[in-house]
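Example record

One chain of 319 residues, shown exactly as stored in the release files.
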Amino acid sequence: MTTLRTTRTRAAGILAAITTTAVLAACSSDSDSGADMGLAEPSSQDNGSGSGSEAGGAAEDRATSRTFSGQSGEDAGSDSAPGTLATERAIVSSGTVSLTSKDVGAARRDVQRIVDAQRGEVTEEDTETDDEGETSYARMVLRVPSSAFDEAMQALEDVAVLRSSNRGSEDVTTQVIDTGVRVRAQEASLKRVELLLARAKTLKDIIWIESQLTNRQAELDSLKSQQTWLQDQTSLSTITVDITAKHDAKAEEPDDEEAGFLTGLEGGLDALAGTALVVATVVGALLPFAVVLLVLGVPAWLLLRRRRRGSPQPAAPKA
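Predicted structure tokens for this chain:
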């Protein structure tokens, strides 16, 4: 009985010793890793401030490059997630409508009413007039909401006689998404550069960081301009309308069927009237000269006649 108790006591002691050894080993491992972490963390802090500003700037450039390439970065990662991308397609639509009308001014007013009904606007207009002051040609550039593009095109085609109609569209969904991702990544990059500028201490670091800040701000402005242009083109569609005057073909071409006696008589009377007009014009031009000639010529002729009567006649020769 005593031997059994002694064996149990020894077994319990061995088990306790093994457990204690395992616990000490685990604690030693945790302390070593904690020490490693503690050593690594101050190193990174030292590289990001003080005399290590250049190293921090290089790390910033690498982080920014990874962000633009889509490999890392909070903004890039969130934008590349499947649920965050825009699901609606971005379409740029444009059209051209050519019309002819007897009254170009009235047709232009009809086009303006259609634009107003679709809540659009006329961004450009060019008109021409004929010798009588009537509008003979009109060209209008319209901007209408993209959702009303098809309806506006159909209404414009019914304004007057349709000569031609063209429609076109371009899918820029990928370009819109890519530009949005690049804008957000560039904004995040600017914030990081501003933090580096706030921690910079030497003049060399400040000048270098400011140059980086200027370049990235210029690129951000360019991306935002492109984003604004894409938004304008996808939200509003462009339609160009040309309206020309319709001429009467019968008035321009001579009628070959109108021939015969009446036509000849009408032509002769017109010629006679023209001749009489010419003769009357000549007579009117010569009449003042004739009056002067009568006033001066008749007395001179009478005087000459009297002198001839009063002069003696020469004697006839004797045989």
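Notes: The longest strand covers residues 91-101.
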